[in-house]
Design goal:
Layout lengths: L16 H9 L1 H88 L10 E3 L7 E3 L6 E3 L4 E9 L3 E7 L5 E10 L6 E2 L4 E5 L10 E7 L3 E3 L1 H7 L5
Antiparallel strand pairs: 1-2, 2-9, 3-8, 4-5, 4-7, 5-6, 6-8, 6-9, 9-10
The structure holds zinc ion.
């Protein structure tokens, strides 16, 4: 029998091939299985979706927390920068105060030095004012001679009778002279403070032995007693 699809006789119903095929196919269960398959597929998709959503929410949460951390770091950075600026500003203000104070102290110290008086050399007073136009102070030869007061050097050189001679002009027109020196330590035009070395004790000019001849002139080159002048400024002679 070829095919046997159109068998005749017996109990087997004659069913056209196409119909039997449809009947045999049992479409309902087949559909159900397909639907189940589809449902399974849907469940898989759902799981996948849920997993994805879960992952996404984890990712979102992570992103949120990372952003929060970044924001916190940025805020901390801003606070630190503000603190640094405030500290720098405080340091600058303190520096200005210190600089102003140092400047005032320096000016005060400079004024104090500019206004101070000193004995121009050591040794005893061997010849007073009156017997001659100045005072003689007689330490050993070579003893340093220093400026008795601040001023500007107006003469350095040899002067008749005075030998090696230095003149220092003071503010206000006073003039102070230092004579019979064995050496000079200054030049004309130099500004000196009290205590600045001018030279050394000698015996040049009209002199009988090492000593400093010291004169003080009031404005107009009017001589005055150097001992009195020094004592008036707190210097014992
Ligand atoms: Zn003298």
């Amino acid at each position: 029998m070829a095919g046997g699809t159109l068998a005749v006789g017996g109990l087997q119903p004659v069913v056209p091939l196409h119909l039997r095929t449809v009947a045999d196919a049992r479409p309902a269960p087949a559909r159900s299985a397909a639907a189940e398959g589809a449902a399974d597929g849907n469940a898989d998709d759902e799981d996948r979706l849920l997993r994805q959503l879960g992952r996404q929410s984890v990712i979102n949460a992570r992103r949120t927390s990372e952003k929060a951390a970044r924001d916190r770091r940025a805020a901390a950075d801003r606070r630190a920068a503000a603190a640094r600026r405030a500290a720098a500003s405080r340091v600058a203000a303190a520096s200005r105060v210190l600089a102003a104070r140092a400047s005032r102290d320096h000016a005060r110290a400079a004024l104090a030095v500019a206004d101070s008086y000193l004995r121009p050399t050591s040794g005893p007073l061997t010849q007073p004012y009156g017997s001659h136009p100045g005072i003689d102070l007689a330490p050993p030869f070579g003893t340093p001679v220093v400026a008795a007061h601040a001023g500007v050097v107006t003469f350095v050189g040899e002067q008749d009778g005075y030998g090696n001679h230095v003149e220092v002009a003071l503010p206000g027109g006073y003039l102070i002279t230092y004579s019979h020196l064995s050496a000079f330590s200054v030049a004309v035009g130099q500004a000196v403070l009290a205590g600045a070395p001018l030279g050394a004790v000698g015996s040049t000019g009209l002199s009988t032995g090492p000593h400093l001849h010291f004169e003080v002139m009031l404005p107009g080159r009017v001589r005055t007693d150097p001992a009195t002048w020094l004592m008036a400024h707190g210097i014992s002679v």
